[in-house]
Amino acid sequence: MLSLPDTIQTTIQDNILLVKLNRPEKRNAFNDELVLAIEQVFANVPAGIGCAIIYGEGKHFSAGLDLSALTERDAVQGLHHSRMWHRALDRVQFGTVPVIAVLNGACVGGGLELASACHIRIAETSTFYALPEGQRGIFVGGGASVRVPKLIGLARMTDMMLTGRVYQADEGMAIGLSQYVTDEGKGVEMAMELAKKVASNAGMTNYALMHILPRIVDSAQEQGLMMESLTAAIAQNAPEAKARLQEFLDGKAKKVGQ
To answer: Which one, 59, 82, 105, 153, has the greatest CB density within 10 A?
Structure first.
């Protein structure tokens, strides 16, 4: 049993792990305690869980770094603090199960960094995105410079940081910050529907999508194609894959679009 602070809460429904950021009085802004709790949760996902959902209590997913909790750090301390964030969010992106983020209200700074480490993002209509670090004289430190440009492109992230540009929910989906937009208060419900589909996939497929596909995208073409071939060969050789293929051939599996 994990010993977690009050700033994060976990529950399990069927084989879905729900993770709630629980600092609504701070718009779910991050202090070190919350970042380390996220790392702890995703480093210890219980056996049998097929997918996780992360969302925020109250009107906001996360307003980013809790500036009131900042302490003065020299360059080396600042480096270690940033690497702590990297370690925690790597646990989300490269963990044992796919993660769906349900966004609402502020998805700002560190909140966007956490969201971009998740595999699917659902935005409720109140969601807005920003990277205000540029206006505050600082630079992103929780992985945004690596993950966000892969979602929206270098030019758009540069614009967000140079000008303080804010994207609303529909705009965010159009440029790649989320894959879905839903009505206010409906995000967790939609996430549960998607999580059940994700959790029903073959384990090797989900592992490949979480751990191998990002590395294929980051590699040169020749190496990427080789990784694809190796992954395809391993996946199709799994007993579960063979059983699913036979179900399809026997007409027992749903066809695309059904």
So the answer is: 105
